[in-house]
Write a structure and sequence with these properties.
The chain is α/β, with parallel strands linked by helices. 37% of the residues lie in helices and 19% in strands. The chain folds into two domains: 2-123 and 372-388, Enolase-like, domain 1 (2-Layer Sandwich), CATH 3.30.390; 129-362, Alpha-Beta Barrel (TIM Barrel), CATH 3.20.20.120. The protein is built from twelve helices and 15 strands.
Length: 389
């Protein structure tokens, strides 16, 4: 039975700032709570399940903040978990629905910690609790930030390809100067990295339908690999129109997909070819698997998104989900490589072999998530700590 839950907000010594159409991605000053990851440790029957999620607001389409996530766990979800079995996954997720709507980041970090605890209790990696290792070696994608100077995007793309062997790039799009600038950015990157690299675009809802149609026509000649969330999240008719006009260039939903009901509506509208699963956005591994079932029924592929900046735990959770899904049902590559020591090391995991090799990463094989945090590092980097018991 669950005895107590620890909640830590931890600093990120290396600040990460990125630009996209709908706002900014900024981890903030190292000593500021807002923008920092939330780590949870669930203690039950001699095992400790651990997970970490960074709520990415403000400045993005997800409403969760660090402070709101901590409050949801310590005030509502956490107390309701005390005394329950770590294996009561369905019952616990029902409790989430009944006790407090929304709050996917808080749900996600608790749900993932439960998978870590179950895996440790059984002595097996988390992916075996979700169907096994269909893909033990996972291809990775690099998300390239917008920049006023296209040379900055070219430099980031070249680093991804040359230093880490990345074979899939996703260029942020919907530049403030208009869709033609997006095409110019794409052309510069394509010339720099060559024809063997898959390059997609992600306007993060920043295009109109008209912009999207013209941009896709222009980008088709440059071998556009895919389109991610070109228009507003509720514009399913617009997505469907763009998908039809794209003539085989896959279209993926991100901002349009939060819930199981969103997945059903997208499938019913024939709006997209792929769902972008981000664990912090959908509410954890349990919710991701449910959405995956809708996708399978509708012949829609899955993509595993989320940068997991400087978090081995967050990256590992995504890797276990990716590994447990058959290759035929996956689209693109895993986005979580910013948690694999590419931009900066995880301050809580100073030693690791969970890193990028030739554009891929191997799913961890240790019990649970297979990632062990350093206790002294956790103590040193904790900005805020609370306990529920």
């Amino acid at each position: 039975m669950i005895e107590r839950i620890e909640v830590h907000v931890t600093e990120l010594p290396v600040r990460v700032k990125r630009i996209f159409s709908s706002g900014s991605y900024d981890t903030g000053p190292r000593d500021r709570i807002l923008g920092k990851p939330v780590l949870v440790r669930i203690h039950a029957d001699g095992v400790t399940g651990c997970a970490q999620i960074r709520p990415i607001s403000p400045g993005h389409f997800v409403a969760d903040t660090t402070q709101g996530t901590v409050a949801a766990i310590t005030e509502i979800y956490g107390p309701a978990l005390i005394g329950r079995s770590i294996f009561d996954i369905e019952g616990i997720n029902e409790m989430f629905d009944l006790r407090l709507a929304g709050n996917p980041a808080a749900r996600a970090v608790l749900d993932i910690a439960l998978y870590d605890a179950m895996g440790k209790a059984l002595g097996t990696p988390a992916h075996r609790l979700m169907g096994g290792a269909c893909q033990p070696r996972i291809p990775l994608e690099w998300s390239v930030s917008l920049a006023d100077d296209p040379a900055v995007m070219v430099e980031e793309s070249q680093r991804a390809v040359s230093e880490f062997g990345i074979g899939v790039l996703c260029l942020k799009a919907a530049d403030r100067r208009g869709w033609r600038q997006d095409v110019a950015n794409f052309e510069r990157v394509r010339r720099a990295v060559g024809d063997d690299i898959v390059i997609g675009v992600d306007p993060n809802t920043g295009w109109s339908v008209a912009d999207a149609l013209r941009a896709v026509d222009a980008l088709r000649e440059l071998d556009l690999g895919y389109i991610e969330q070109p228009v507003a999240r509720r514009d399913l008719h617009g997505l469907a129109a763009i998908r039809q006009a794209a003539r085989g260039i896959p279209l993926m939903a991100d901002e349009s997909l939060f819930t199981l009901q969103d997945a059903h509506e997208l499938a019913h509208a024939h709006a997209v070819d792929a769902f972008c699963i981000k664990l912090y956005k959908v509410g954890g591994l349990t919710a991701a698997r449910r959405i995956g079932a809708v996708a399978q029924a509708a012949n829609i592929q899955l993509n595993c998104g989320g940068l997991a900046v400087q978090s081995q735990l967050e990256a590992a959770a995504a890797a276990h989900f990716y590994a447990s899904t058959p290759r035929s049902r996956m689209f693109g590559a895993g986005e979580f490589l910013f948690g694999l020591n590419t931009t900066a090391p995880d301050p809580l995991v100073p030693e690791t072999d969970f890193v990028v090799r030739d554009g891929h990463v191997d799913v961890p094989t240790g019990p649970g998530l297979g990632v062990a945090i350093d206790e002294e590092a956790l103590r040193r980097h904790t900005l805020l700590q609370a306990t529920v018991q």
